[in-house]
Design a protein that fits this description.
This protein has a domain of about 80 residues. It has five helices and no strands. It is mainly α.
Length: about 120
């Protein structure tokens, strides 16, 4: 009698805090939602309606909760009025993925302030 062992992989996603890279954070959280089986909430319910099935609300609620747990307090404050996962996700994208001049300047400042430690080799 043979048994197959399944390996579970634990990984952590850091909280998004306006200073980190939103695109990378978004990719990690989306992967986490896929792993949980709640990623469909990102494409689903736009607003609360009485005709939505309880299963869909359960998935939406779990996905929204997962996203909220990986946001810093400052970011959470900006999206706290959103009622569904789709609206929350869209709001995050509109705030942190925009190609505004201020975001470009911020990214350039981040790039120009990078320093390499003395003695570090680049391969």
């Amino acid at each position: 009698m043979s048994s197959k062992a399944t390996k579970t992989t634990e990984f952590e996603v850091e909280k998004f805090d306006e200073k980190s890279n939103f695109l990378l954070w978004k990719m990690r959280v989306t992967s986490l939602l896929v792993k949980e089986g709640t990623h469909k909430a990102l494409f689903g319910i736009e607003k609360k309606a009485s005709k939505i099935e309880d299963d869909e609300w359960e998935i939406d609620f779990h996905a929204e909760t997962t996203i909220i747990l990986y946001l810093s307090d400052e970011v959470l404050y900006n999206i706290m009025n959103e009622e569904t996962t789709v609206r929350l996700w869209c709001r995050l994208e509109s705030l942190y993925m925009t190609k505004s001049l201020s975001n470009k300047l911020f990214m350039k400042k981040q790039l120009y302030s990078l320093w390499m430690k003395e003695g570090t080799l680049i391969l």
